[in-house]
Amino acid sequence: MPTLACTVDGLKLPNPFVIASGPPGTNLNVISRAFREGWGAVIAKTVSLDASKVVNVTPRYAKLHAADGREVIGWENIELISDRPLSIWIEEFKKCKDLHPEGILIASIMEECNRDAWVEIVERCQESGVDGFELNFSCPHGLPERKMGAAMGQDPDILTEVCQWVMSAAKIPVWAKMTPNITHIEEPSRAALAAGCQGISAINTIRSVMGVNLDTLRPEPTVEGYTTPGGYSSKAIRPIALRMCLEIATLIRAEFPDRSLSGIGGIETGADAAQFLLLGANTVQVCTGVMKFGYEMVKALRADLLAFMEKHQFETLADFRGHSLDYFTTHADLVHRQAERKSAKKATGIVQADGEWSGDKFVEQSQSLSR
Ligand SMILES: Cc1cc2nc3c(=O)[nH]c(=O)nc-3n(C[C@H](O)[C@H](O)[C@H](O)COP(=O)(O)O)c2cc1C
Questions:
Q1: What is the rounded distance in angstroms from the CA atom of residue 274 to the CA atom of residue 309?
Q2: pLDDT at site 364
Q3: Global pTM value
Q4: 207 and 77, same structural domain?
Q5: Quick check: CB of 40 below 6 Å from ligand 1?
Q6: Is 76 part of a structural domain of the chain?
Q7: Ligand 1: distance of its center to the CA of 328 in Å?
């Protein structure tokens, strides 16, 4: 019988399914629910020293539906970090560790670019007994105006400095959460790992505009007639998240082989999770999925992942973690490999060169090139 249990940066998790920072970890009540349902760890909603500066609006979510009009495939939010005072959070962290001593509780923290502020938030959260930190360098809206969140994550030099401040005070594992709103995600990832962070979490939401209402002609989500670009999540972002995890896992393998990766973005099934693990993730996080399907979805996630492992006769997550990284190469190498195969056996019915496309068989030819 395979096991989902894993040890990541010294933290013992019963399974790799982690609640991502956001509404599903927004107070003690919901965090306790997550542990009761059997999630492997919980990352609480991001906290800061002065919650009075955090003012949310409503509506703050907008959804993209599939053609059936029902299934939600994309989700935009303009929600900020937690608007609850840090003193209340500290009490809840302590109570949570009393209630669930075995539960891995990670505090997500964010501050302005100031050494004292970062050291203070690390020390106050750490004293409460949390098991680890996630540094939110990635919120794409609202906070960049205060040079927080994605504004830091997009600048490897600032990120190096902030991670060094955190590491000077942290005695527990630290994961740096990356923004996808950057061309080369490995650059800030390298900065965080070189500064001593134990792991990388990726990705946060993708900066987006959900759409424009064609009756009112106003963009959505509409707040007093206006909006601001937000963060895109849910299954539509999974291919982008997988690509970014591939890039970070490749970096970790080459330069920081003892560090960890937590994959995030559109995970809703055990099969989705298996793909992140195959691309080198140690754990996977779920946020919007929980908002769509509820905390109990972890039972199906665990069962699906175990079934995948049984099918391939994998006993532990380590047996297949990073397995598929070996099968990425350059486009030039794909051309070379295909030319070799074609010279051995000429493929039939498949377009080999652009001149072979036919108007009559266009759809069939397009299908034959997929996969
Ligand atoms: C409504 C909402 C609020 C979020 N709040 C936070 C947050 O406070 N801190 C954070 O690091 N990420 C936050 N996130 C980002 C998620 O943790 C996650 O990185 C992202 O949504 C992609 O994962 P998903 O597709 O499973 O939702 C939030 C996401 C959503 C949808």
A1: 9
A2: 87
A3: 0.93
A4: yes
A5: no
A6: yes
A7: 28
Candidate from 21, 26, 206 with most ligand 1 atoms within 8 A of CB, to mutate: 21
Q: 195 and 256 share a domain?
A: yes
Ligand 1 site, residue 21, Cβ cutoff 6 A? yes
What is d(CA 135, CA 150) in angstroms, rounded to the nearest whole number? 11
Ligand 1 midpoint to CA 20 (Å): 6
Q: Judge if 169 and 68 occupy the same domain.
A: yes
Q: What is the pLDDT of residues 293-302, one digit of tens each?
A: 999 999 999 9
Residues above pLDDT 70, as percent of the chain? 98
Over residues 330-358, the mean pLDDT reads 85
- 263 CA from centroid of ligand 1 (Å): 12
Among candidate residues 6, 125, 139, 163, the one labeled active-site is 139
**Strand pairing class (260-264; 199-202):** parallel
Which residue, by CA, sits nearest to atom 10 of ligand 1? 21
Any domain includes 243: yes
User: Residue 53 corresponds to which tokens in the numbers above?
Assistant: 């500066």
- Structure tokens belonging to residue 74: 């994309």
> What confidence score (pLDDT) does residue 345 get?
62
99 and 231 in one domain?
yes
Ligand 1 atom 5: residue of nearest CA = 22
261 and 362 fall within a common domain: no
Distance (Å) from CA 147 to ligand 1 centroid? 19
How does pLDDT run across 14-36, given as a tens digit for each residue? 999 999 999 999 999 999 999 99
**pLDDT score of 126 more than 70:** yes
What secondary structure does DSSP assign to 162-216, as a single string?
A: HHHHHHHH--S-EEEEPPS-SS-THHHHHHHHHTT-SEEEE--PEEE--EE-TTT
Q: Determine the average pLDDT of the residues in 84-90.
A: 98
Quote the number of domains for the chain.
2
- Residue at 1 is within a domain: no
Q: Could you list the residue range(s) of the whole structural domain that residue 22 is in?
A: 6-327
Atom 2 in ligand 1: which residue has the minimum CA distance? 22
> Residue 19, preceding bond cis, omega within 30 degrees?
no
Is position 139 annotated as part of the catalytic site?
yes
Question: Is residue 173 included in any domain, yes or no?
Answer: yes
219, 167: one domain: yes
189 lines ligand 1 (CB under 6 A): no
Structure confidence at residue 361 (pLDDT): 87
Give the Cα-Cα-Cα angle 6, 290, 153 (nearest 5 degrees). 75
